[in-house]
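Chapter review: from sequence to fold.
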Amino acid sequence: MSAGVAGASLVIGISWSCSNNPPVDQTRNGAQFIPNAWLKIDTEGHVIVTVAESEMGQGPFTALPMIVAEELNVDWRHVKVERATLNPAYGYQLTGGSTSISKGWATLRQAGAVARQILLNAAALTWQVPISECRAEQSSILHLPSKKSLSYAALVPQATQLPIPDTALLKEPNEFTIIGTPTPRLDTPDKISGRARFGIDTKLPGMQYATITHCPVFGGKPKRIDKEKTLKIEGVLDVFKIEEGVIVLAKDTWTAFKGKAALNIEWDFGDKQSISSDSIIETLNELGADQTTEVVKQGNPEKLLNTGSLESEYTLPFQAHVPLEPMNCTASFEGGKLRIWAPTQSPSEAFDVARSVTQSKIQRTANKIKTKLFGSEDNSIEINTTLLGGGFGRRLKQDFVSEATQVAKRTKKPVQLVWTREEDIQHDFYHPLTLHEMRGALDENGLPIAWHHIIKGPNAKPHGADRLPYDIPNIRVDLIDIGKILPVGPWRSVMHAYNAFAVEHFFDELARAGNHDPLELRLQLMSQTPRLKKTLEIAADKTDWSSERGLFGVASHAGFGSYASEVVQLVEHGNRLKIEKITCAIDCGIAINPDIAKAQIEGSIVFGLTAALKSFITIRDGQVQQSNYHNYPILNMAETPPIEVVIVESDGSPGGIGEPGVPPLAPALANALFAASGKPTRNLPIPFDNGGIKIT
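The token string follows.
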């Protein structure tokens, strides 16, 4: 059956937005064919796809249009992309959790299929022929018997007059011609040429510039501000307090930074001055098994563990995000309307935060009631989402939007707020420090028979540890969450990163204690996770795994709808162990764009390797000790080893791709070091200098 005629999957009950949300403007003027909220075709044949996800390098401005283009049977050269406005048709706009593709998969396929169906109907009516004789192909409708064709552009006037069909047919995966191909990214030309606009590139007439000083201690407030020196600096316009800290307003960003450096502030440090990384670890160590919350209980692990067990403990530090573009936001009040330009991962959350600054609680409640009862929207705030210079979860938090809004509300002039790098690192929402207590027991054949994992930390979560991929009959997982004693937030792969390290490194300890090859034991015990097992087999095969060499480490993890295994290969180089190669095999379901998928995995491996070898945040006297790249380093290009990524062929629904590469990396590295030295890794990061890991 021709893909242009039909597929086997029926779409039923299609709405304007292909969702249950209210519609956007459905104006039909004949100049554009707009069958739903996600795409439009103009009379020149351009296909403009609307994307509601934030673009921070991960590729939704290409991968999501590919889904639409596939069902629409459009010539990719005609496709353009535009960022969605904040509109209920697109739902709650938030980009995180590696969900961009999985959220958009069904909806955008429907959007493309609906448009194709209407264009087929338009052509059939134009020719007065049965629709079964028509096929959509390369931005045209073909009439098979007569060989006549009409371009989509030519059909726009007719298509705009036709009703939205109740049903449309989707393609089968074996009919895909765009999905699964390494298609060039739509945003690359603008990024190369400099036309791409990030948040920090926003410029408005008459704009002023601001920066902020937060209290060095979490939760502290300014008590007294000596701003005399700052106000004497040419170009400094004002110094004042807002809720979160002290603002310096100036004619340009660098003058604002200079004014910030000249400030003399006496702080009220509040009640968190005694907090330190050491005190948090001490608290975690004091909390025993009787203070845990049970997460998983299978079999009777206590009985087996009490008769003899292997015990280990791992500590992983706080981590910052350090996106290359620091926190920034531009805000302007004009004619009673607040307009915001922000590199945010959640325009919807940015809207809510800005509204909390500009409206009273009574006003917010009244507006919500009006929206619910009458469908009217609050148009007093406009959110413009720019490109993001990195996110990694940090820009899900909207503190920088709140701060810029407060400044603009006060000045009544357009203002761009930019944080310094020091503020960015010392006032983050951190990936939490965690401590992991592990106990395991082996049977007479050296096979794991009991497993107990206690996860401890501020805002600790069990995800990634609550579903072991291995056939161990007796399992218990417990949690001790001591709450948000300092700002914590989502970080690339969130809790999966720290839990995968504990699970996968401790598995190696058990395997070696039972005289088993860690790779072979994993494969033996993965009967319930065939997709994960397949990635492990492929990754090992690609590296020519050999336990005799003793310089390989492997780890596997399932999360975000995907399955990934990684192998780290070490080589001796003088008195150092260097990483010779990292191999990753990932099953992410249908890979929309293999090139983007590979780039995302490569990036996540570098991100994970940075955390495993170089970066960490320490707290002393309630303050972050790191301040810039000199003491919070990231992996550079010369230190980055060769990386091979294998996308496992799959017909499953698309899973995540931006985060699944992070969790297996640190344990695979630790397992390689364990194989080489016979010593497990108890703490991260692993000491790394002169481009290698010292042999001890």
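Two observations follow directly from the output. The radius of gyration is 28 Å. The chain has three domains: 9-187, 200-270+327-418, 287-319+429-694.
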